[in-house]
Amino acid sequence: MQPLVKLDGVAVALPLDNVDTDQLLPARFLKVPRSQGYGPLLLHDLRFGADGQPHTGFPLNDPACAGAQVLVARRAFGVGSSREAAVYALVDFGIRCVVATSFGDIFAGNAANNGLLAAVVGEEEIEGLLAAVEKDGRARVDLEACTISAGENSLSFSIDPVRRIKLINGWDDLQLTMSYKDAIDAFVAGDRLRRPWTQPGRDAPAPMPPAP
Amino acid sequence: MAREPQTLFDKLWQQHEIVRRDDGQSLLWIDRHFVHEGSFHAFDQLRSRAGAVARSDLTFGVADHYVPTRRPGPIGDPAIARMVDQLVANSAAHGITLFGLDDPRQGIVHVVGPEQGLTLPGLLIVCGDSHTATHGALGAFAFGIGASEVAHVLMTQTLWQKKPKRMRVAIEGRLAPGATAKDIILSVIARIGANGAQGHAIEYAGRAIRSLSMEGRLTLCNMSIECGARCGMVAPDETTFAYVRGRPFAPDGANLDRALEAWAQLPSDADAAFDCEVTLDAAAIAPTVTWGTSPEDALPIDALVPDPAQQGDPVRGESMRAALDYMGLAPGQKLTDVRIDRVFIGSCTNARIEDLRAAASVLAGRKAKVPGVVSPGSSLVKSQAEQEGLDRIFRDAGLEWLASGCSMCVGINGDTVPAGERCASTTNRNFRGRQGRGARTHLMSPAMVAAAAVTGHLTDVRPLLRENA
Asked: Is the torsion defined by CA of A61, A62, A63, A65 positive or negative?
């Protein structure tokens, strides 16, 4: 995973609440292989009409927003479905940081696993940041200092400290987990004695109808 | 020996914690892992790392998201057929038991798990689907995860998590006739908001919850994600134990005795502390419908469409205006005047046998004024309903009786609501375009959907229940 420490680039304001993962990547695109790239599908139905023509008023369609790395929204960004493809769409589009006042729980985890910073700022600060980004079109993000600035507007954001370290170093969980192999094996051995009933039957009997 | 009083969630967490790091991250053991067609990204990650599935005996595949509901018959769209085939191939390659398209036990993963006795009290269950909290109805710790996490679980049978805070949602008193588990959860979400439980594990408690059937508890826990919770659960009790006994994969004999002993210890200690409590009066919960594009936009059926101009918060007003515009509704309009174009009865939220019975009891002897489909939660629910003659009631009312799958809840198998059409739906999300591009969704209980079908508009089901009584 590509480490993320500092960003200085094009920023786009998306002043919306509840940008759910069905908006970020409509379900009908979920069968697309990742190798095709999800960038063109990001926020597809908000960006394009049913005829495929771009909505000219939509922020991401503004030519000034081309190459955007930072996206600023409002409350409850990424709520809904667990589809990691919503994060792939942002990342493939080029976004490295989303700023909002809150994030969907699963989305925030998926973001950290894909090198995308989900930065939380306060309700009282987001409007100022949205205005500054709309005016300036750029933002600077510093993950070491946990600050974001646009124009004269500079503020602190919060992120889970573990996710912050993961992003800064570009770590992924798997190698780390492998280093705990002995602890896992010991847990499994003890658990077999503590909770023998958790093992599902391997040769299950014939299907049973649901209880009346 | 004195010990700190614990909640149900504290106990479940502790029983699955392998290690806790100084930074607060815990490595948790996973008892059950369900995969479906959408898990292909995770299998691709596994392949790219040349990884193996650590515990195929604890991993179960279910074909639900992409399966056709008009079957038997070929899958028309090759891209959809490829999704179903990929799951078959990945399950076979890794020795994973699959409840596939032609298996009599096939169905929606969150219906099949409990039905087969794979879901048990005390287990930690994950699946790459946000509605995995459903399984919490049995007193399990269950939550949805993303594809990278699915890959991690496949390869290690573990997951890193930070312990969420504990929220108790108490529904005190008795539900009034006509009010259901769906109305409870929609009321909870409307009260605390679409992200109101973010970072929390919910335990649903109180007399109204204890009185719910297992089906009702599954509906309740299913929508925990719609208020942002990591998971939702109900303490196991006699209702739970009676439900689990005798199911195909459930423990039996001496193992069952051990299990029952362990399960009896799970409920929260009397003096256990929660980080946050929300209480609702069950008697005040009326049949509820959504009017907007988030499940938090829910109101009792006798209410009016809200007026954005009367919102104190201008940002909220603006987002309400956008929602009403998308939904084609006017402020001040009576919800019961909202005409619908079709109905959908199905999904992991509300397609179990009790849900189908509730809808059928309203539709019996009546005709639907709009088209609609019924997709049972599992193939076994479908056969059970057919044994009870419910399929005849739906068909006689003019609705289509289809096979089981996620179907029109997410629309990726091709079952969609056409653009601009309004659907009364037993599902869990009224997001823009959720049921198809431009589709307008109103969430409600199965009986309320049946009532809307009969009248052609959003309707209070209660008078119809009295007429049929």
From this structure: negative
Q: Are strands B422-425 and B342-345 parallel, antiparallel or unpaired?
A: parallel
Collapsing DSSP to helix, strand or coil, B66 comes out as coil
A37-52: pLDDT as tens digits: 999 999 999 999 999 9
Which of B194, B229, B438 minimises the CB distance to A18?
B194
Place of tokens 């051995």: A189
In a domain, A193, yes or no: no
Residue A46, domain member (yes or no): yes
Sign of CA dihedral B441, B444, B445, B447: negative
In a domain, A26, yes or no: yes
Minimal C-alpha gap between B182 and chain A (Å) = 18
B173 touches chain A (CB under 8 A): no
Name chain A contacts of B193, Cβ cutoff 8 Å. 76
For β-strands B276-281 and B165-172, DSSP reports them as parallel
**Given phi > 0 = left and psi -120 to 50 = alpha, else beta, which region is A208?**
beta
> Does the CB of B49 have a partner CB in chain A at under 8 Å?
yes
Residue A24: which CATH number? 3.20.19.10
Sheet containing B124-127: order of strands: B97-99, B59-62, B32-35, B124-127, B141-144
Task: Look at residue A181 and tell me if it is in a domain.
Answer: no
Total domains present in chain A? 1
Of the candidates A140, A121, A147, A19, the one whose C-alpha atom is nearest the C-alpha of residue A70 is A140
Give the predicted TM-score (pTM) of the model.
Answer: 0.96
Which residues of A fall within a CB distance of 8 Å from B387?
209
Q: Domain of A74?
A: 6-171
Chain segment B94-126, per-residue pLDDT in tens: 999 999 999 999 999 999 999 999 999 999 999
Question: What interface predicted TM-score (ipTM) does this complex get?
Answer: 0.94
Residues ≥6 apart with Cβ < 8 Å to A150: A11, A129, A132, A133, A136, A138, A139, A140
